[in-house]
Design a protein that fits this description.
Keywords: Transferase. This is Glutathione S-transferase. Residues 90-216 form the GST C-terminal domain. Helices cover 54% and strands 7% of the residues. The chain contains 9 helices and 4 strands. The chain has helices at 15-25, 41-49, 69-79, 94-116, 125-149, 164-172, 179-185, 187-197, 200-210, and strands at 5-9, 29-33, 57-59, 65-67. Strands 2-1-3-4 form a 4-stranded mixed β-sheet, with helices on both faces.
Length: 218
């Protein structure tokens, strides 16, 4: 038994959301960079913890393994409500928070599964390209729906209340279709991302995660 959380992640990926959340909790935590696409000892260690070989994978102080960023966020909120990762129980904002947290994870995230490597699902080159284009167009519609749901009065997704939704937005604005697209088509999300990146406790972490990293998905 120890008091340190250990996050297995990949630079610029969804593990960045959990890294930012851990920074806000002020819990002691460590980070292990893993290229989950390359065979080797690092990936073998990740696979031993998470057979899907995905990040984020979080090892808790009691050595229990957590996966799935939404589940991790909710656990960290339960243990560190001072980090304001979610509205408190009974808050009128809680249903909205839960809705859009699951929307991001259940609707937007799968578009990367299918568009990153469409040949896995459609072996023929022409069909793979068609699948990729269709999924990316669908992702853009989902992101615009998320943008419309963001609090117009700002400064955060839930309006005046910061939450982990803002961490998701800040990270996703670095992914395809890219920051220029977000600035033009999802200005509320883009503004939230900029505010998150300006937070002193997150600025260095986010800069390090995305320095020199191309937008996810080629």
């Amino acid at each position: 038994m120890h008091d340190t959380y250990t996050l297995f992640g990949t630079q610029g990926c969804g593990s960045t959301i959990v890294a930012a959340a851990l920074a806000l909790t002020a819990f002691p935590w460590g980070y292990e960079e893993v290229d989950y696409t390359q065979d080797g000892p690092e990936r073998d260690r990740l696979l031993a913890l998470n057979p899907l070989g995905q990040v984020p994978t979080l090892v808790l102080p009691n050595d229990e393994v957590m996966t799935e960023s939404a589940a991790i966020i909710l656990l960290l909120h339960d243990r560190a409500p001072h980090a304001e990762l979610a509205p408190p129980g009974g808050s009128p904002l809680l249903p909205r928070f839960l809705r859009w947290l699951l929307f991001i994870n259940a609707e937007i995230y799968p578009t990367f599964t299918y568009a990153d490597h469409p040949q896995r699902w459609q072996p023929q080159a022409a069909g793979a390209e068609q699948l990729k284009n269709a999924v990316m167009a669908y992702r853009e519609r989902l992101l615009q729906q998320l943008n419309a749901a963001a609090g117009a009065a700002g400064p955060w997704f839930l309006g005046k209340s910061f939450s982990a939704l803002d961490l998701y937005v800040a990270v996703m604005c670095h992914w395809r279709p890219g920051r220029a697209w977000f600035r033009q088509h999802c200005p509320r999300l883009y503004a939230i991302a900029e505010r998150v990146e300006q937070r002193p406790e997150l600025n260095a972490l986010l800069s390090a995660q995305f320095d020199g990293v191309a937008p996810l998905e080629s």
